[in-house]
Write a structure and sequence with these properties.
Length: 346
């Protein structure tokens, strides 16, 4: 199986179809848990490699984690067994090989049978062209479905998030953000704020900090790494003197994205506690606060030794994209939709 990084900054090539549940009447709630996908296709495509090709890209590894974890949990069913109960699945991929088609393509529909729901169709005139097309556009497929799920997580946070942390961030930074209610322990430093579930195991953490914006070189990889390490060394110590958080430098992935219409530096990697056996994954989103000429970095990291970390990290990453800088608030850009503020698919 190919193990590409699947960075979410890949250009989206999906051709949108216009089915949307909004305003179209009542739809029952969709079933399943986040990051589950149901593949539906004709029986022949289970034998000719088409289903295997789609499965491979969906089960590729999530970037930035210390162990291999598949991006999605995949279930499969033939078209003749795609019953009305299965129509309610939250994420469905229809795999269609049709000799009358002129070329491979992707398209999607929303809230056809239930809400929220997305049905992505992958189609091609023959199995070989479909397999090749899926191999070339695997990042697009995974990135699209990941953003769909993060939008759903952001909607959940909009309805239910920590009001205490929202107020603390607003008072200290003039920003707004929605983070999970489980983060109950907080620490404040100079231009720095940290909130944690403080569980010891399966621990989620949120950090926000700022520093002056000087020029575009502020967003070089080396500048970020040096700045992150200096901030964490001061503010996140270990249990004994000489122990502090640091970035595990060989394992860092950088990407450039657009958040609320403006540049953002997204960084994924591993953190470790210097001189202490402790570590885990992190993701950060850095943006320029033009109103105050500073860089604001929002970061999520987890500590879950011996456990899978994908779900915890995705919850934290969804929270990061809800951050609103002072300019966002002044201009009433309250959208939390990650598709709108990053690469867009509609």
């Amino acid at each position: 199986m190919k193990k590409s990084s699947l960075l979410l900054s890949a250009a989206v090539l999906i051709l949108a179809s216009c089915v949307n549940g909004k305003g179209s009447g009542y739809k029952p709630g969709s079933s399943g848990v986040p990051y589950e996908v149901l593949l539906v296709s004709a029986p022949a495509n289970f034998q000719n490699g088409a289903i295997d090709a789609v499965t491979e890209v969906l089960e590729d590894y999530v970037p930035g984690l210390p162990q291999a974890e598949s991006a999605f949990k995949v279930s499969k069913v033939t078209e003749n067994k795609f019953s009305s109960v299965l129509h309610y699945c939250r994420n469905i991929i229809m795999v269609n090989v049709d000799a009358t088609l002129s070329a491979p393509k992707l398209k999607y529909s929303r809230d056809v049978y239930a809400a929220p729901q997305v049905i992505l169709t992958v189609q091609a005139p023959d199995a070989k062209s479909l397999i090749d097309y899926v191999g070339q556009n695997g990042e697009t497929i995974v990135g699209f479905l990941t953003r769909i799920e993060m939008n759903r997580a952001a909607e959940t946070l909009r309805k239910k998030h920590s009001l205490v942390i929202e107020e603390k961030v607003k008072n200290q930074f003039g920003c707004d953000i929605w983070v999970p209610q489980e983060l109950v322990k907080t620490k404040t430093g100079k231009d720095f704020f940290w909130a944690s579930t403080d569980l010891g195991q399966r621990d989620m953490n949120f950090v926000i900090y700022s520093y002056p914006y000087r020029d575009p070189n502020t967003f070089t990889e080396e500048y970020f790494l040096n700045k992150r390490d200096s901030v964490m060394k001061v503010n996140i110590p270990g249990p004994r003197e000489g122990q502090y958080m640091a970035t595990a430098r060989p394992y860092v992935l950088f990407s450039e994205e657009t958040v609320r219409g403006k540049y953002a530096q997204v960084v994924r990697g591993l953190w470790e506690m210097e001189n202490y056996d402790m570590g885990g994954p992190f993701v950060s989103v850095g943006r320029v606060d033009e109103k105050n000429q500073r860089v604001v970095v929002a970061e999520g990291f987890v500590y879950a030794p011996g456990d899978q970390k994908k779900d915890l990290m995705r919850r934290m990453e969804a929270a990061l994209y809800t951050l609103m800088l002072p300019d966002d608030i002044d201009e009433r850009r309250f959208s939390y939709n990650i598709e709108e503020v990053t690469i867009g698919v509609d």
